[in-house]
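ugh ok fine here u go
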Amino acid sequence: MGDVLDLIDDFCDAVPRAHATATDDGPLRLFTRDGPGWPYHARPLPGGGAVTPADVERVRARQRALEVPEAFEWLLAVTPSMAGAVAATGLPVRVCPLLVLDAPAAPTPLPPGYSVRLLGPADADLAQAAHAARAVANAAFGAPAPPPPSAAELAELRADLAAGRAARALVTGPDGPVCSGGAQRAGDVVELVGIGTAAAFRGRGLGAAVTAALATVARDTGAELVFLAAADETATRVYERVGFRSVGECGIAEPG
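structure:
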């Protein structure tokens, strides 16, 4: 189990580097985006020492100066000191199950009238499809509706899709786009991210279908490890139906 968690920890340290600059401060590492897009969480250095509240406070001060969210992520078993250190600074800590896929994803047929699409870098409507996927995800997670992607964001996504660093899936039905998800890759490790279904369309197997589609692409393109973090037990059961199993937990700390 330790080897799998170490691989995931190394991945989490590697994947931001395509679009961010890493700055170390004691046992913590801050990733600052080089362009547009979601800010990255700060996290412990792989193989670093114990984390103290003072370490967290210093990085939070850096994040405030950069006007980025004071957010952290870590693997509980890899950095056991992190949860207490973060909590001592007043940030709420959320724990999420970590799951991996050891075999081909289980078949997950969609209901009649629904189809899943994998976005491609040459798609003529990539801007519209990417915007739809983001809008569905934001609605699923209770975030504000996003603006259309900027030219820079679209160019970054197109390059990531072409290089295999990212994947995007979108489910469309009679009512339009209703479910989406993504994947990010570093080396032979792939993480599935942002899988969400609009509230009115849950319970129809759409999230499982997106999960299976993304996992299948990852395995078909040579990924040795496919993993994800589940938001809650309901999501965990969806992923388990696809074939994922629990291997540990990750911690996320963000302002309430």
